[in-house]
Write a structure and sequence with these properties.
The complex is a heterodimer of chains A (555) and B (315).
Chain A lengths: L1 H8 L2 H30 L8 E7 L2 E16 H6 L10 E8 L3 H4 L3 E5 L3 E5 L4 E6 L5 E10 L2 E3 L5 H46 L8 H31 L2 E6 L5 E5 L3 E5 L6 H17 L2 E2 L4 E2 L2 H32 L4 H13 L4 H24 L14 H25 L3 H9 L4 H29 L3 H6 L26 H10 L4 H36 L7
Antiparallel strand pairs in A: 1-2, 1-5, 2-3, 3-4, 6-7, 6-11, 7-8, 7-9, 9-10, 12-13
Helix pairs in contact in A: 2-16, 5-6, 8-11, 8-13, 9-11, 10-11, 11-13, 12-13, 13-16, 15-16
Chain B lengths: L1 H7 L4 H9 L33 H7 L5 E12 L2 E12 L3 E5 L6 H8 L9 E9 L2 E2 L7 H7 E4 L10 H11 L5 H14 L3 H4 L12 H13 L5 E5 L7 H14 L4 E5 L3 H7 L2 E6 L2 E7 H6 L4 H8 L4
Parallel strand pairs in B: 3-8, 3-9, 6-7, 7-8
Antiparallel strand pairs in B: 1-2, 1-4, 4-5, 9-10
Helix pairs in contact in B: 6-7, 6-9, 7-9, 9-10
The chains are: A alpha+beta (555), B alpha/beta (315).
C-alpha cells in the first residue's frame, strides 16, 4: 500500500497517462493517413482481371472483372434477399466483382457468392479499356477496324493497338488544347466584344455607320473567322480521332464495337510485367493529379479542384494577413487599453468560435448579394442580368475565409507583439525614431514569427473548410480554371472547384458511389497532403524568421 | 531609519550651516524655479525641501563650463504617486554627472525626463520644466524625435536590435533618412571607433548584434547612440549587467567621451560614480538631496543622509 502511494505521489501514473494520450493521438493520426493511403492509392494499381465461371440461376455463367472486395455476411440475410444458400450454412463469403461494361449490363458491380464459383482464371488476353463514357470495359480484342475496313492482325495485335492508342492520345491532346484554350479564349473575347457593344449602344451610339461600331464589327468578324477556323480544324480532328474502332467480345460472348475516340487507355493487367505495372501505376496516379474529372466526377482526375484549393488558400492568406496585422497592431499599439479595447478583443476571440457555415451565410448575404450586387450595378451593368460579381466566385470565397481566419491572425499577431521586450522599443525611440518608425523598422519585423504562426493556423483552417465555400463559390464542376491566358489572367469572379467539396460530391452526391469510393480516399489523402505542404511552407518561413530573432527569447 | 526620517523632515539648522561653512551657498532643491545663488537665505516654500549646492557655484569653480541642461522645479507623477518633487539641477556641458541614490528614488525617472521617454507611460504627468541649451523640452511644439537625437540614451540591459552590427549602428541615421552607403559606412566606422569597439567587430559587421558578448553589446549600444551625434548621453546603470572587465571598458569609454559629450550616468556603484563623474547628485524619495562636485559629495557630504548612503550605512 505504502509502495503504491509512493509510486502514485512520484507522479508516475500521470506520466503514463500523458504518454498514453500522446500515443493515442499519434496512432489516430497515422491510422487516418494509412487508411487513406491504402484505400486511395491502391485504386491506381493495375489489378488483375479474372474470368469467373459462376453457377447462377441453375446454369453456369462467365463473368469477367476485377475483384473489388470480399466480405462475410450473415446467411440469413442473404436467404431473405432471395439467394440460394443451404440451410445449414450460417456465414457466407461473398465477393464484389467490378464487371464494368455498364453500357451492356447496366451496372458496374456484381456480388458473387464464393460457393457459386466454379472456376477462376486469369487469361492474359483479357483487356481493360478506360473510356470517356460508360466506365471501364472488360473483354477480349477480336479485331481493329480502320475507316470501315478490318485491319489484318497478322503479327502482334498489341503493337497495332498501342500504335493506335498513341495516335488517339496525340489527337485528343490537340483537341483538348484547341477546345480548352484557343476556343475558350475566342469565346471569351467575343463575349467581351458583345458587352462592349451593349455599352456603346447604352451610351447612345445606335447608328450602324458609327466608327466605333464599325470597328467593333470588324473585330468581331476577325474573331468569328478565327472561331470558324478553329471549329473546322476541330471537326477535322474529330473525324480523324473517330477513324478507328475496336472489335471486342464481352464476357458473355457478345460482340461490341468501341470507337477509338472514346478510348483513353487499354491494357492487359494479366500480361504485364512488374515494371510495366509500376509504369502504369505512375501514369494513372499522375492522371489523377493532373487530369480533369470525367463522368460526373466519378472518374478522371482532380486537378481543377487541387488548383482551386491552393489558389483560394493563397488568396485568403493575401487578404487576411494585412487585415489581421493592421487590426492587431492597432489593438496592441495604438488603442488606449480600456474596457472598450478589452471588449473588442473578447469579441475577436469569440469570432473564432462561430460555426463556419455562419460565415458562409454572411458571405453570401453581405459579400455576394450586397457588395457583389452593387459592383455589378456599378461596373458590370452591361452583362446584367447575368451576374459577374453578384454570384459566388473565387474572390468572395477567399474573402469569406479570410474573415473566418481573421481572429487567429489577430490573436497570434498580438501575442507576437507583446513578446517584444519593452527595452527594444525604447531603444528605438531613444534614437529619435517616431512611434511609426519604431513599429515599422523594429517591432513588426520582430513580430513576424508571431504573424507567421497566425497565418499557419489560418491556412490550416482554410484549406480544410468546406461548408461556407458551398455557399460562396465552390461548384461541382467548373469548366475553366480561374487562371488563364486572357486578360486579366486571374479571374476572381469565376466559380471554382475545391478538394474538400469534391470529396463530399464524389462520396455522397455521386451516381456511382461504389466506383467512386477509392477516389474519395485518394482525394482526401491529397487534401491532407496539400494542407501539410501549405503548412510546411509557412512553418519553414516562420522558422527562418525566428532563427533571425532567436536570441530575443533570452531577453 | 531615524536618519531617513530626519532627512525627510524640515532640515535642521546645522545642515544649512555646514553647507555655508564649506563655501557653497545653499541653493534650493524645492522652490519657485529660479535658482538664486545670490540669495543669502534660501526660500523654502516646501517643507520637505532640502538645501542643495547650486550649479552656478560650481560653474564658477570650473571656468568655461556652461550649463547644458537646466531642470527647473520639476515635479512628476505616475498616476497619483509623485515620483519627482521640486527638482532643480543644472547639468554642465561636457562633464560627467552621476545620479546616485537608493532604488526607487527617482534617478532613472529623472534621466528619462531628459529625452521624454517618460511620455511612454500614459499616466505620467509632469509639472515644471527642463531646458536643453535654453530651450524648453516640454513645450507644445517640441520635436520629440529631434530631442531624442540630441539626447541619446543607453539602457541598463544592453538592448541591441536583432539586426547586424552594422545596421544597429546605422539605425539612427537610417531613421533620419540617410541612405547613401558611403555616408553610412563612414558614420558606422566612426561611431564604432569612438565606442572602442571597431577593432573587435570590424571583420564581422554583418553578424547579428546579439552575437556579441554583454560588454560588447553595451558598447555597441553606446556606438549606436553616438552615431547620431547627440549633445547629451544618458547612461542608465550601464554596467549593472556587466562583468568587472566589461565595466572597466565602459568606464574607460566614458572617460574618452567626456570631452565631446555631456554625460549623465545613473549608477548604484559608489566607486563608479566616484571614478567617472565630475559632479554627483544624490536623490532620495524623488528629491535632490545633495548636488555638487563629486569629490566634495564623496569626501565631505553636507547631508547626513548622503553620508549614510555613501558609506553604506543606509538601507
Amino acid at each position: 500500500m505504502n509502495e503504491f502511494r509512493r509510486w502514485f505521489s512520484k507522479g508516475a501514473p500521470w506520466i503514463w497517462l500523458q504518454a498514453a494520450a500522446v500515443s493515442l493521438a499519434l496512432v489516430m493520426v497515422f491510422g487516418l493517413i494509412l487508411l487513406l493511403a491504402t484505400r486511395g492509392l491502391s485504386h491506381f494499381w493495375p489489378t488483375p482481371v479474372e474470368e469467373w465461371t459462376v453457377q447462377q440461376e441453375g446454369s453456369p455463367q462467365v463473368l469477367v472483372g476485377q475483384l473489388h472486395r470480399s466480405e462475410r455476411v450473415d446467411a440469413e440475410r442473404l436467404r431473405e434477399a432471395g439467394a440460394d444458400v443451404p440451410e445449414e450454412q450460417r456465414v457466407v463469403l461473398r465477393h464484389l466483382l467490378k464487371i464494368g461494361n455498364r453500357d451492356l449490363t447496366g451496372r458496374d458491380f456484381t456480388w458473387v457468392l464464393d460457393q457459386d464459383i466454379i472456376g477462376r482464371q486469369r487469361p492474359e488476353s483479357l483487356l481493360v479499356i478506360d473510356r470517356t463514357q460508360w466506365g471501364r470495359f472488360f473483354g477480349r480484342l477480336v479485331g481493329i477496324r480502320e475507316a470501315g475496313t478490318l485491319v489484318p492482325l497478322a503479327g502482334n495485335p498489341w503493337i497495332e493497338l498501342d500504335n493506335r492508342l498513341a495516335r488517339v492520345g496525340d489527337l485528343r491532346a490537340r483537341i483538348d488544347e484547341l477546345e480548352g484554350s484557343a476556343l475558350t479564349s475566342v469565346n471569351y473575347r467575343l463575349e467581351r466584344l458583345r458587352l462592349e457593344e451593349v455599352g456603346l449602344r447604352r451610351d447612345g451610339i445606335s447608328n450602324e455607320d458609327d466608327p466605333a461600331l464599325v470597328a467593333l464589327e470588324a473585330k468581331r468578324a476577325t474573331l468569328q473567322a478565327e472561331f470558324d477556323g478553329y471549329a473546322r480544324e476541330l471537326e477535322g480532328m474529330f473525324a480523324d480521332i473517330a477513324r478507328d474502332s475496336l472489335l471486342l467480345t464481352a464476357a458473355n460472348g457478345e460482340e461490341v464495337e468501341i470507337n477509338m475516340s472514346v478510348v483513353l487507355d487499354a491494357w492487359r493487367p494479366n500480361a504485364m510485367s512488374r515494371k510495366e505495372r509500376l509504369a502504369h501505376y505512375g501514369n494513372q496516379l499522375w492522371g489523377f493529379i493532373s487530369g480533369p474529372p470525367r463522368e460526373a466526377n466519378t472518374a478522371g482526375g482532380v486537378f481543377p479542384a487541387l488548383f482551386g484549393t491552393v489558389l483560394m488558400v493563397l488568396l485568403m492568406s493575401i487578404f487576411v494577413t494585412p487585415l489581421g496585422v493592421v487590426a492587431a497592431v492597432y489593438l496592441h499599439e495604438y488603442a488606449a487599453q480600456g474596457w472598450l479595447t478589452g471588449f473588442v478583443r473578447i469579441s475577436v476571440n469569440n469570432l473564432a468560435g462561430v460555426p463556419s457555415i455562419v460565415y458562409g451565410v454572411f458571405g453570401l448575404g453581405f459579400f455576394i448579394y450586397f457588395v457583389g450586387g452593387g459592383i455589378d450595378q456599378l461596373f458590370f451593368g452591361d452583362a446584367l442580368p447575368a451576374p459577374t460579381f453578384g454570384t459566388g466566385g473565387l474572390f468572395w470565397a477567399s474573402l469569406t475565409l479570410a474573415l473566418l481566419t481573421l481572429p487567429v491572425v489577430i490573436v497570434s499577431t498580438e501575442e507576437g507583439l507583446s513578446r517584444i521586450p519593452r527595452s527594444l522599443r525604447e531603444g528605438s525611440l531613444a534614437l529619435g525614431a517616431t512611434r511609426w518608425e519604431t513599429l515599422w523598422r523594429t517591432v513588426l519585423p520582430m513580430a513576424s514569427p508571431g504573424i507567421m504562426t497566425g497565418i499557419i493556423l489560418a491556412v490550416a483552417r482554410a484549406a480544410g473548410e468546406v461548408a461556407p465555400l458551398m455557399l460562396v463559390g465552390v461548384v461541382k464542376l467548373a469548366p475553366t480554371l480561374p487562371v488563364d491566358g486572357d486578360f486579366p489572367f486571374l479571374h476572381l469572379d469565376r466559380k471554382f472547384m475545391h478538394l474538400g467539396f469534391h470529396i463530399y460530391d464524389v462520396g455522397f452526391q455521386s451516381p456511382n458511389v461504389e466506383a467512386a469510393r477509392p477516389l474519395v480516399y485518394a482525394t482526401a489523402l491529397l487534401l491532407v497532403l496539400i494542407t501539410l505542404v501549405l503548412n510546411l511552407l509557412a512553418i519553414g518561413i516562420r522558422n527562418r524568421l525566428s532563427e533571425r530573432y532567436r536570441s530575443l527569447e533570452a531577453q | 531609519m531615524s536618519e531617513v526620517q530626519r532627512s525627510d523632515d524640515v532640515p535642521g539648522e546645522d545642515d544649512r550651516s555646514s553647507v555655508e561653512a564649506e563655501g557653497i551657498a545653499p541653493g534650493q532643491a524645492g522652490g519657485n524655479g529660479q535658482p538664486v545663488a545670490s540669495e543669502a537665505e534660501p526660500t523654502l516654500p516646501d517643507s520637505t525641501a532640502e538645501p542643495v549646492a547650486t550649479v552656478d557655484e560650481i560653474s564658477e569653480a570650473i571656468p568655461r563650463a556652461a550649463v547644458q541642461l537646466r531642470v527647473n522645479d520639476l515635479n512628476l507623477w505616475y498616476g497619483e504617486k509623485q515620483a519627482l518633487s521640486h527638482v532643480d539641477l543644472s547639468i554642465m556641458r561636457h562633464r560627467v554627472t552621476s545620479f546616485i541614490g537608493p532604488s526607487g528614488c527617482g534617478k532613472t525617472t529623472l534621466l528619462r525626463c531628459f529625452n521624454r521617454l517618460t511620455d511612454l507611460a500614459s499616466d505620467c504627468h509632469v509639472v515644471g520644466d527642463v531646458e536643453l541649451e535654453g530651450q524648453s523640452i516640454f513645450g507644445p511644439d517640441v520635436d520629440v524625435p529631434q530631442l531624442r537625437r540630441d539626447v541619446g540614451m543607453v539602457f541598463q540591459k544592453p538592448n541591441p536590435f536583432p539586426k547586424s552590427i552594422y545596421e544597429n549602428v546605422a539605425f539612427g541615421l537610417r531613421v533620419q533618412g540617410v541612405t547613401k552607403r558611403r555616408e553610412l559606412d563612414d558614420a558606422v566606422e566612426w561611431a564604432l571607433r569612438a565606442a572602442a569597439l571597431w577593432d573587435e567587430v570590424k571583420d564581422r559587421l554583418e553578424d547579428s548584434g546579439l552575437s556579441l558578448s554583454g560588454g560588447q553589446q553595451q558598447r555597441l549600444v553606446i556606438a549606436r547612440a553616438i552615431a547620431v551625434q547627440p549633445k547629451v548621453i544618458l547612461l542608465d546603470e550601464p554596467c549593472s549587467a556587466l562583468d568587472p572587465i566589461s565595466t572597466l571598458k565602459v568606464e574607460e569609454l566614458i572617460q574618452q567621451l567626456r570631452d565631446q559629450y555631456t554625460i549623465i550616468i545613473v549608477t548604484h556603484n559608489m566607486q563608479q560614480a566616484a571614478r567617472v563623474s565630475d559632479y554627483t547628485a544624490f536623490l532620495y524619495l524623488g528629491q535632490v538631496i545633495e548636488y555638487g562636485d563629486t569629490d566634495q559629495v564623496f569626501t565631505n557630504p553636507s547631508h547626513r543622509s548622503t553620508e549614510d548612503y555613501i558609506t553604506g550605512r543606509y538601507g
